[in-house]
Amino acid sequence: MGRIKINVVLLIILKLFLVGTTTGEETYENDRQIDELCSSYTYKSVKPLLDYFRQVRNELDQSEIKEKHTSEINADLMIKYHEIVGIHEKLMKEAFQLDEYKNQIIRKENDLQLCQSKVDKLESEINSQQTTINLNWFHCLHLSDKSNKLEICEDQLKKLNSSVIEKDEKISGYSATIQNITEHQKTISLKLEERQTMLFKKDKDIEICHAEIIKLNRSYLNKMNSSSCLPFEEYPGVHEIKVSGVGSFDVLCDSQLAGPGWIVIQQRIGGKENFTRDWATYRKGFGSMDSDFFLGLEKMYRLTSLQQYELYIHLVTLSGSIFYARYDDFKISDEDNGYALSLGTFRGNIENTMRDSDKMKFTTFDRDNDASSDNCAVWFNSGWWYNNCFKCNLNGLYGKDLVWWSETANYLKEAKMLIRPKDE
Ligand SMILES: *[C@@H]1O[C@H](CO)[C@@H](O)[C@H](O)[C@H]1NC(C)=O
Ligand SMILES: *[C@@H]1O[C@H](CO)[C@@H](O)[C@H](O)[C@H]1NC(C)=O
Ligand SMILES: *[C@@H]1O[C@H](CO)[C@@H](O)[C@H](O)[C@H]1NC(C)=O
Ligand SMILES: *[C@@H]1O[C@H](CO)[C@@H](O)[C@H](O)[C@H]1NC(C)=O
Ligand SMILES: *[C@@H]1O[C@H](CO)[C@@H](O)[C@H](O)[C@H]1NC(C)=O
């Protein structure tokens, strides 16, 4: 519509411009005729006027020419105007058609836009579907992969299952065997227990039997009328011996301190016995063989009068050092001679201290046979073969006067006197 308006205004302006125009050729011809006319006059006087006329006429001519020109042009223009109008009309028509086209185009454009948007929408839908499809595809691939794996897994599981079942069967077989074995074991262990109790019984029987044999052997040995511990070499402990003059009596036999067959005649191992005794008691003997005791002077005299005896003295100092002193001809005289002591030759790993008592009679608080002006037995609450009292006092008060004076041992916690028939 805008374009049509502009064209109408342009045509009106053209029409106004074309009114009153002439041609220029006529003006030139007039000027030449006027110049020829004037040549006859006094040129000098007329000349300016003539120029002036000429100028005016030129001007007039020119305007005439212009007018003529203008009219010509006007006519021309009119033709052209009409042409233009025709063209204009044509243009108008075409513009209208153009408008129509334009509208159509606009409509179509709208349609196109609508279509485009639809297409876009569809495209986006398609895209989204594509992605879902792609996803699904991926999923599917994945799933198929997994299903393959699953199949493999199932296969493996089946194999495992079958092997497990096989093993189960084996295990149940084994467990049956184990049960059988266990039961077998039970019966065996029961039998073993029975055998053990039987064995235990038999052991006890054997023990009893053994004790019986020992008893029998002892009584048999005792019936041999032995006068020493020599036959009891295998059986240390208390045994009955028979000695002419005193008859049968118990003695303690020792086979450990200095070889087999020793009779223990005196023992101090715990201080549980009272050694402050009178003559009669020392004559008879006192104490307990599992503790401290003195065998008795009369028995010692009777034993040692039968044959030669050796004496072994075992000494343990307070600090625990062990010593021994041996005399090879131990003899006790009869009571009339005061149970006097004879020792023989000394041998040992300690000083020959007891030599001081050699040949001395026995002294008790009620019978003084010592070399002292006083009674050593009273002084020292004991009975011993005192000289001018003593250099050793194995019957001395336990923990006070139980001594063996020497460089290596003095106070004692243990003392034992043992005798054995001397080998010829
Ligand atoms: C294993 O095998 C037994 C017997 O064939 C069956 O009952 C069971 O379901 C199987 N188990 C599996 C996990 O396959
Ligand atoms: C159990 O053991 C006995 C003897 O050892 C055998 O005779 C028997 O066959 C076994 N039974 C089983 C079930 O293994
Ligand atoms: C032991 O002495 C008794 C009598 O005192 C006597 O009958 C017996 O025969 C003696 N035994 C032996 C083996 O000498
Ligand atoms: C009995 O004692 C003697 C002497 O000690 C010994 O030789 C003998 O083997 C003993 N007998 C038995 C059965 O112990
Ligand atoms: C030991 O015996 C004597 C007489 O036998 C007695 O006088 C004394 O009191 C007794 N000593 C102890 C500690 O029992």
From TrEMBL:
Secretion signal, residue range per the UniProt entry: 1-24
Task: Report which superkingdom the organism of origin falls in.
Answer: Eukaryota
Note the InterPro entries from the entry.
Answer: Fibrinogen-like_C, Fibrinogen_a/b/g_C_1, Fibrinogen_a/b/g_C_dom, Fibrinogen_C-term_domain
The record's PROSITE patterns line, in alphabetical order, gives:
FIBRINOGEN_C_2
Quick check: keyword Transferase in the entry?
no
Q: One GO CC term of this entry?
A: extracellular space
The protein's UniProt keywords, in alphabetical order, are: Coiled coil, Signal
Pfam families, alphabetized: Fibrinogen_C
- Fibrinogen C-terminal domain: residues covered: 220-423
Please name the Gene3D superfamilies in this protein's record.
Gamma Fibrinogen, chain A, domain 1
Q: What is this protein called?
A: Fibrinogen-like protein 1 isoform X1
Which gene codes for it?
A: LOC117568590
